[in-house]
Amino acid sequence: MKLYHAFKRIAAVALLGLSSLSYAGNDTETDENGVILAGHDVIAYFKQNKPVLGNAKYTAVYNDAIYRFQSAKNRDMFNSNPEKYAPQYGGFCAYGVTFGKKFDIDGKAFEIKDGKLYVNKNMDVYKAWAENIPKHIKEANDHWPDVENVSADDL
Questions:
Q1: N or C: which end of the chain has fewer CB within 10 A?
Q2: What are the two backbone dihedrals, phi and then psi, of residue 124, each rounded to the nearest 5 degrees?
Q3: Within a 10 A sphere around the Cβ of 72, how many other Cβ atoms?
């Protein structure tokens, strides 16, 4: 039994190591290690209504991005329905997408609207975006198909 658990740990570490050699595609905002949301636990946004850093011990991969969680329970909740919890616009700044741009985010500025997670570059940008969220969501939705598969550097 110990050998089985040791093998599982080695396989998980190897898979994470390999996944960090490649980065997520143009449609997902990740760091140089492939981690999305600046390492914040996506479930915490929904369940605790605050940004909480995840732990590298609890991870999941979705759309080529590595998600970190504060607990196995949160990881399992995400894995049961990743489409429900994944951030809109691939985790790029929601306000930036309204201008057809892709900006990285700090993981601290967020909003859940109609059951969907929107993240912004930082709190200052969030304040501008929050002035008219429905309008900005519509604008971002209009731009996203044109920028989704384009590198942020090319926009």
A1: N
A2: -65, -45
A3: 11
Residue 15 contacts by C-beta under 8 Å, 6 or more apart in sequence? none
Please name the helix (run of DSSP H) or strand (run of DSSP E) that holds residue 22, with its range, or none.
Answer: none
Total number of residues shown for the chain:
155
Residue carrying the six token digits 């926009």: 155
* Structure tokens that stand for 144 in this block: 């996203």
Task: Tell me the pLDDT band of 25, cut-offs 50, 70 and 90.
Answer: low
pTM of the model: 0.83
Question: In 10 A of CB 121, how many CB atoms?
Answer: 20
| Tens of pLDDT, residues 53-94 | 999 999 999 999 999 999 999 999 999 999 999 999 999 999
